[in-house]
Input
Amino acid sequence: MSVYNSNRGGVIQIIIGVIFILIVGQLISLQIISNKYKLAADNNAIYRKIIYPDRGIIYDRKKRALLENSISYDLVVIPNETKGVDTAMLCSILNIDKEEYKKRIIEAIIKNTRVKAGVFEPFLSPELFAQLNENLYRFPGFSLSERSIRSYPYNTAAHVLGYVAEVDVNFLKKHAAEGYEMGDYAGMTGLEKQYEPILMGQRGVKRFLRDNKGKIQGVYEKGEYDTSAIAGRNLFTSVDVEVQQLAEKVLQHKVGSVVALNPKTGGIIAMASSPGYNPNLLTGSQRRKTIGRLLMDTARPIYNRAIKGQYPPGSTFKPLGALIALDEGLITPSFGYNCFGLYTACGNARKCEHHNAGHAGNLQLALANSCNSYFLQVFRMAIDNPKYGNAKQGYLKWKEYMNGFGFGRKLGIDLPSENKANIPDTASYNRDFGGARYWNSCYMLTLGIGQDRMTATPLQLANSMAYIANEGFFYTPHFVDSIENENEEDKNLLAAFRKKQVVTKIPKAYFDAIKEGMHDVTVYGTAAFIKIPGIEYCAKTGTAQNPHGKNHSIFVCFAPKDNPTIAVAVIVENAGYGSVWAGPIGGLVMEKYLNDTLTAESQLKADNLSKVDLMPQGIKDWYIRHNRNELMTPIEYNNDELGDVWEMEVVSSEMTPKLIKADTVKKDSVKLDTAKKTKKPTPPLPKKRNKETILPNQDKKKKVLK
Amino acid sequence: MATIDNKNNFSKGTDLAVIILYFLMVTIGILCIFMVEYNPNANWSSSLVTAKNNYSKQIYFALFCSLVGIFILLTDSKLFTAFANIFYAGGILLMLATFVIGKEINGSKSWIPIAGGFNLQAAELCKIFTALALAKFISKPETDFTKIKNHLIAGIMIALPAVLSVMQHEMGLALVYSAFIFAMYREGLPPIILIVLVSFAILVIATLLLPPGILAIILTAIAGLFVLSMIKRFKKNKQTILITIGIWAICFGTVRFAVPYIFNNVFECYQTTRIYSMVGKEYDCSKNIKSASKTGTAKVKKPDDYNVKQSKIAIGSGGFWGRGFLKGTQTRGKYVPEQHTDFIFTSLGEAFGFVGTFTFLGLYLFFLFRLVRIAERQRSTFSRVYAYSVIGIFFFHIAVNISMTIGLFPVVGIPLPLISYGGSSLLTFTVLVFILLRLDADRQMVLR
Output
């Protein structure tokens, strides 16, 4: 019939062909040109589960674990699968109400979407875990997930170790390339932060197939693309956990810091900062309760005073001042200064504790007697050194020495956020005195006795002792001696700690003079009543004036005198004389380290010392105002209520030398208030005070009994 | 006489290529359904026997359809011409009956439950009957298919089941009936009708894409330019001007009133939304009368282009070589809804990539061209019209189904012939093909 239409068969074929070409064109664009669909499919279907390796352990010098890993459980929920949950029962177990339940589910959805597991209740207590585990079948969509948390068997070294915490958005931004994800934990402070990459190890990734409801279907490609987790490596530190504990113990109820290090290696033996906190309070479920409290505390228990606190070194600076002058050839060990109790060369008189003739007859004597006039003079000589033409140049040279000794700069300890403290720049004097031409050594005179604008951290002070102990060099202070399975990268990392830092080639004879002087301090000087059984040591006390109230009590020392293996710096804030509070602490730390134990007598001393309350009144007032009936000193070996402290103080004042009882003596040996130059000096202490205090000290027990 | 010969040897004269392609396609279909359902943890051989899974069911469907096919090949081809109109009437009655005894599956009340938990979709079968009836009508000696009257009669025959399908909420099936235009075109439908229809389609799409004001200006501009360019001729023939103005008015009316009316009042909200999402726009369902009348029942669903998005991801992730048999993550994770039925092409695209889809399309194209060749070698109009109806139906299904999975066409729920899971659909296509084979085997006979 319609034969004439037969060409229309061809037209139909063309139409079919054209449509097929269109389809093939779209297929080419989907399957060949664009690769975003492959990614989209992977995003859809491949669930990457991160396998967390165990974090590395941190050991002390005798391979005792300062911290360990322990298991905790989280209750996690997949919001999409929570149909038929016995909410009433769950709420009663967790002790929350329905509103809270709903809120947490919504939070989980916001954080991890409906189909991914999100934390509902972290860090379950063992009882909660047992209760939930038993009834888990009633709560579809809920499960218990294991997680590793830190625990601290010795309850110690919180500041040094630092803590791990959940990463926040800022952290993720900063470490974008390191594969952290929301909900991960990372070291936030201390060694945990400093050695994060080593401690963390390498996270493994397991890939699973999941379906459109987020259910896991099985392993993706038989695990071909999975990487296994590599455990974090352990750190071996130079810390001695017993010395550390002792240091923290004796600092209780005080604001201050102890740093002890081994001059032969630069390895830190103990670093305590008080007030501190029990590191166990920042792990697991306790963290939420504690962290806010710690951060709010006016005494700043989280703040590591050992590397951040800035204190005028006071008299403890004197040996260094002498070393500068010796090296510059300005004095010899036999240099003497005729001090009669006042230093008047710069106009207004500066008081010295002593005025008996010849107490500064040579360097050794001047050091032993801590003669202010002598060291003021020595400082002026260094600044006005004719070699450098003017005070400014002289000062710059002096500053260079100071920086060399490790002051006014970061030492490079393996802890984050070390403070460099302050050795003032000439610019600051130029500004205040109207230009370089207008100032001279007299304007900054008290730098010579560790005051003025000079500040140092306890770490820097301890390091300066290591420098003197070593007679001319030190190693950068550090905690980590070695890393498990050390590789090239680690070696480079630790190389800085294994390199001798030689400051200047000062002849041994000069160091001998300094050491003898510091030894004399412990024989008949300000530290004479502090003894280490069987060991000769060198020390220098300091009582630093500061604008924040009572003087700081400072003590630096190293021992044994020959072949020193420990150098210590102790600061007790607003406590008074260096020899009274800081000194005994330093002595106990040295004794513990060198003798590995304390004598019964020392033990008693330590116990008593730990009970002495030297908290500044301002802090106490704050605690009362904020209804905190308990200081955040968490160390458990103190079971005493704070109410007993007043009683304790009575004990302590009996136990300590007489002069402490004389609390009326408000000002320390060095009087230098540049602002109030004309201020009448407080009545000078009785002469030969030292001898008085030393002698009774020998039979202290009798005194106490009396 | 020839039929008697064929009864003794039914394979004589049947087109072997089509038979081979048919079984190849059905096998590919079963493998695709197997890929969708595959679960590495389950024992697939045991579920094969128990027929609990869709692929095993599909195997039984295929066996049954083979029997039906053999049965058709054994019948007399005169049967189809003789009973064409009765079949058609029966089919329409069945569709009407569906309104009474029908069962609702997936929101469309077009299924008649039959024994053994199986359901039959009358609208599917009606395609066959319509094809036969159309062939019968056009092949009648008194039908002059150049006349508009006959075009209209044919159109009504086609439209009747289509309208019934729409009433059963089977938009996709209704659209399939437009495939008969191929057969009608082949038999003398003036091309101008095709051109008008295509122009209308373009106009509708333009309505969606362009703001109404700009479209009106464009339309007016085209009309104006047309008048200007033909100004001399118009002087002689004023009628043309009137026609031009008439067309312009119709276009304008379509753009302004007809299309919005259809989208807001005739289509369901989800259908309009799908069409809008095709051109990358959002549709405000509050404009839709149907959805407004039942706002209370509105369910919160995944965004409407979720299917297409996942489907495109599945096909696109196949890449050039594919991810391998049973290795597609989109398929394994069941990300593509309705993957075993309407979106079966995605499992193929994901597993075998462009190589697979290209080869597969090649097979289809070969199949269609083979059918065109068969159609053109028929001596009887009945066979040829029927053949082109089959070509039209197959082509429409293939083109629309694949286009919707790759995002070229709005999602309408029509299966991929011989591949998608489903007994009704497989049976329909089997019957369509095997009747054609039966007729083709008897092409020497004059069936009119």
Observations:
- Chain B touches chain A through 49 residues (CB under 8 Å).
- The longest strand of chain B covers residues 108-113.
